[in-house]
Specification:
Length: about 160
């Protein structure tokens, strides 16, 4: 409950975990440690809920939602940053930084974020597993974030 911050949601997850345990037992599965299985199932369900609520791991969507700890600009816009770089600067850099990524990284990021394709759609189009798509997206986002951080350091060095 503490991690979810919502007692009702925590109760629903506990009920769902219990329902799954009962269904497995009715299906004839032998669960040697039902208590441990129940906790693991509840934790996995909670993680799924939290992941669905979070923006993309790329973080750029999250920047639009999270205010900078330093407050607002005089225009009233939230000051969101990657490190010490303003979001608008990062958005200006994106086309150039994306162009420096490999074609495979560019393609998977474009399909997912510019075209709005789901991981399942990408997997079907590429004829690969959904897990493989997720790994490719994760690695491409990490490379892009590294490029943003390198650009930030270069800007700081020049200043």
């Amino acid at each position: 409950m503490v991690r979810l911050g919502d007692p009702q949601l925590a109760e629903e997850i506990a009920q769902e975990a219990m329902t799954r345990l009962i269904a497995k037992q009715r299906a004839g599965d032998v669960i040697l440690q039902p208590r441990a299985w129940l906790f693991r199932a509840a934790r996995n369900l909670a993680v799924d809920v939290v992941r669905r609520r979070l923006p993309s791991p790329l973080g750029l969507e999250a920047l639009a939602m999270l205010p900078d700890r330093r407050g607002e600009h005089e225009e009233g816009e939230l000051d969101t940053r990657v490190g010490e770089v303003r979001r608008l600067e990062v958005l200006e850099w994106l086309p150039q930084l994306l162009h420096k990524l490999s074609l495979a990284d560019q393609e998977v990021l474009e399909c997912r974020y510019a075209l709005g394709m789901s991981c399942q759609d990408l997997a079907a189009e590429k004829r690969i597993s959904v897990a493989n798509v997720k790994v490719r997206l994760h690695r491409a986002r990490r490379r892009l974030l590294n490029a943003i951080e390198q650009r930030q350091r270069a800007e700081e060095w020049q200043a």
